[in-house]
Amino acid sequence: MIKAVTDNKEQYMELLLIGDEQEDMVRRYLDRGDLFVWEENSEVVAVCVITREGDRVCELKNIAVSPEHQRKGIGRKMLRFAEEYCRSFANKLILGTGDSPLTVPFYEKCGYSRAHTVKNFFVDNYDHPIFEGGVRLVDMIYFEKELR
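RESULT FIELD:
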């Protein structure tokens, strides 16, 4: 079951840090974003944060599934939920991710197209090296999907 969270969003920081490893980066968008949690048996196992970026565009700022619940389709279902949620007020959903062998194929399989790249994003904005799937993240790859 997916639920919206409006108060005390910081209580989900542990899960949010799976999707974005640096707490001050998460805090930059958490208050202005819409936070949703996925619950199974009264346990929160996944989160996502969506922001409205104007001009009928939403951005998926964070999506994360607890390690013990990964590879069960929850991330894909959360992504579909985000698309449906945004569809009523946005024409496009964008998201940024590292150039990782784990995330890039996932978003491509979900129908997202590469939009642009922000060079050195992870080097310039994070206080420590970020690794995913054995690869150091340097550039942020933006993906987009038309919702209408």
